[in-house]
Amino acid sequence: MDYASTNVVWCYWQGKKSFNHTHCWEVVKTCKRFQIIPTGPTVVLNETPLHETPASDSPMDSPMSQDSPIENSQGLLGGRRRRRREGELSKHQAMRIEMDLKQQEHDMAIQVEYAKEREYVRKEREYVREQNIEKKDRETMAMDTSHMSPETKQFWKLERRDVMRRRLFRDDGPSNTDCQ
């Protein structure tokens, strides 16, 4: 867009100077030292000015134009659109929050189910371990030592004593140190 044809470009480097080099405008138009000051007529499309002029003599700047029904209806439509857009955004946010909550509930349910499963597996392993100990104890108590050497007989005698001690303490019931 050729701003130099309808507007004056001011350079703020060494005071206010007019910028007349239109061939290099594309390079310097983003520089902060240059400011576009409109001098030509205000371009109006559908009664909406494309750029503001500080002191314009257009009929749109009169106090009556501010109360015109066209301006008010556009303002109302713009406000409605903005409110509708904000309402849609809040609906989307509410839906996202609801989906996040459902996901959290689902994750918690999975964690609870997983914890129950781990507890079941732990109890199952403990039961199997106890059954293996019981089986070993029964085999120890039922072992025939008549054909064994005196050292081996002594070993199995001590093993039987340990089994009896374990059974006595296990079957004795809760002791004074148990917190049940």
UniProtKB/TrEMBL annotation:
Highest rank taxon of the organism: Eukaryota
Bias-annotated ranges (Basic and acidic residues): 132-141
Stretches the record annotates as Disordered: 45-93, 132-155
InterPro entries, sorted: NAM-associated_C
Residue ranges of coiled coil: none
Domain No apical meristem-associated C-terminal span(s) in chain numbering: 17-162
Stretches with biased composition (Low complexity): 56-69
The protein's name in its UniProt record: Long-chain fatty alcohol dehydrogenase family protein
Organism: Prunus dulcis (Almond)
